[in-house]
Amino acid sequence: MVDRANLPPLAAIRVFEEAARCKNFTLAADKLGMTQAAVSYQIKILEERVGAPLFIREARGVSLSDIGGAFAEKATEALNILSDAFAEAKGISQQTLAISVIPTFATNFLAQKLGGFQMENPNIAVRVEVSESLVDFSASGFDVAVRGGQGNWRGLASHLLIPTRFTPMLSPDLADTIGGIHRPEDLLRLHILSPADPWWNRWIAAAGLEGTDLTGEVRQHFGPQVLEASAAIAGQGVAMLTPAFFQDELTSGRLIQPFGLTCEDGSGYWLVFPESHRHSQKIRTFRKWLDIETQDWRS
């Protein structure tokens, strides 16, 4: 059984955790509304209780010692758990769910369906920010994020929403300029958008076009799929896209998917959040809703 009588003061742990993230006592003091001397004193209390240095003092700041690094990770987790528990005790944990989400998922899924979530959960207000970067949950105030990748982000729980599948898509007008797309090699007669995208090499190989070299294509990179899809709809070229995100465009005929062949690269779109927030009720509610909304995409 843990002897809680030996725990250091919570104030000292809070100061240490902020200093560990800032790697600078002065900056930590500013964020905490304390003096640098007060921060140094709280760190000294902890180091005396631990019996070892938690920081390595350097000319331009501080860095964590091995012991300090391990302690900082656990301290952040513990403070997050305590914060969630306190919020729920005050009855405010259901007020706002802050979501950071990549552009294509935001535009072609979340914006179209989020109203349904809020109708089902009127006690949860939602704040959404679109970003390509993985947020720092401890500093940004976000509860969850939707990201693309392998799902192996350190310190984060990753919940797979849909696997990444991709295939060429283009406007019907562009296809008509060469009499239609009948064979995979017909695509190579047209301009390829983002030819350096590794998805192209994977799909070309699966289509039996080994040896095809796209290095002669004009170097373009659109970033988010939603931008590349807009270029394709405008007839600028052939895009490699995830069909699940563009069902409306396919149904309306603004885009066509000439072949049923889709490929995967082992990546996917994930709901991610700190491990320490796994039991947050608002996150569990949002995750359950996303599972239902994306179940057809996983088949």
Provide a descriptive summary of the structure in words.
The protein has 299 residues and is α/β, with parallel strands linked by helices. Helix content is 43%, strand content 18%. The chain has three domains: 4-90, Arc Repressor Mutant, subunit A, CATH 1.10.10; 96-162 and 267-298, 3-Layer(aba) Sandwich (D-Maltodextrin-Binding Protein, domain 2), CATH 3.40.190; 165-264, D-Maltodextrin-Binding Protein, domain 2 (3-Layer(aba) Sandwich). The protein has eleven helices and eight strands. The strands form two sheets. A six-stranded mixed β-sheet has the order 4-3-5-8-6-7, sandwiched between helices. Strands 1-2 form a two-stranded antiparallel ribbon. Strand 3, helix 5 and strand 4 (125-130) form a beta-alpha-beta unit. The protein is elongated and about 80 Å long. The mean pLDDT is 87.
SSE blueprint and pairings:
Elements: H1 10-22, H2 25-32, H3 36-50, E1 55-58, E2 61-64, H4 66-90, E3 96-101, H5 103-120, E4 125-130, H6 137-140, E5 144-149, E6 156-169, H7 172-176, H8 198-206, H9 225-233, E7 239-241, H10 247-252, E8 263-274, H11 281-298
Give a quick precis of the structure.
The protein has 299 residues and is α/β, with parallel strands linked by helices. It has eleven helices and eight strands.
